[in-house]
Amino acid sequence: MQVLLHSDPNTDGRHGMAEHLQTVVKGALGRFGERVTRVEAHLSDVHSQAKASADGVHCTLEARLLGLDAVIAHLRLLVAATALPINADFENGFADRPEGVARNVALAVETGIAALSIEDWSGSALYEPALAVERLRAARAAIDAIDPSVMLVGRSENFRVPGMAVSESISRAVAYSEAGADCLFVPFILDPGAIAELVAAVAPKPVNVIVQDYDQRIRMFAALGVRRCSVGGSLARRAWLAFDEAAQALKRCEADALT
Questions:
Q1: Claim to verify: residue 119 and residue 243 sit in the same structural domain
Q2: Which of 15, 52, 146, 199 is the least buried, fewest Cβ under 10 Å from its Cβ?
Q3: CATH number of the structural domain spanning residue 221
Q4: Domain count for the chain
Q5: Cβ–Cβ under 8 Å, residues 210 and 187
Q6: Whole-angstrom Cα distance, residue 188 to residue 203?
Q7: 149 and 175 assigned to the same domain
Q8: What integer pLDDT is reported at residue 137 of this predicted model?
Q9: What averages of pLDDT result for each successive group of 10 residues across the chain (259 residues)?
Q10: 156 and 198 part of one domain
């Protein structure tokens, strides 16, 4: 299992923290063996451009399952379980070359999903812009051959490249829009000015952002022209925090009963 740590310029991703992450994640997920191939931790401070304080840092964990077959099977389960539209985080399409992306996207669309995203991260680096565009075009063609109503989300993994300029992320988003993406997603571009610039650059196509706090920022994003919000792992994190707090309360009750 590969464990990776990503941090934005406002958070401290020191070597010691990476080692600690390795120990914690492998201890918690080791029982799943080879079924989990990679876990990525994303540290960010969405509140300030200044150096983050400890209580302002968010950590989102992203687990990657073993291969395409497991993901396709999971999509079938989700589609069968609800009448709600299902959006698939289809990573890099589980292929590097456009023809492989097209083949795998077709498999995903045949499960009955309503949307899927294709990102420009290979697992170790960003694809060169020309190849990234060809991959989106291949995904668009594969979707249109089966069900043109399925939404294609073009996702640029800007946060994985320290110091990547916002202008470069926006340039990629524009290229992905022109290649056939219906919606553009650039995670962790959260500065209002940058969001407004992104919205204007790809208009009239909708922009997706990620939200970690469910407050007035969502209204702010809407006012800037954002039309789609993803919660990432934040909803699951809140659920687990509530569960942990309840468990700790039960533990305290047990201790009080014994004293």
A1: yes
A2: 15
A3: 3.20.20.60
A4: 2
A5: yes
A6: 19
A7: yes
A8: 98
A9: 67 66 78 71 59 57 76 96 96 96 98 97 92 98 98 92 89 98 92 95 95 87 94 84 90 73
A10: yes
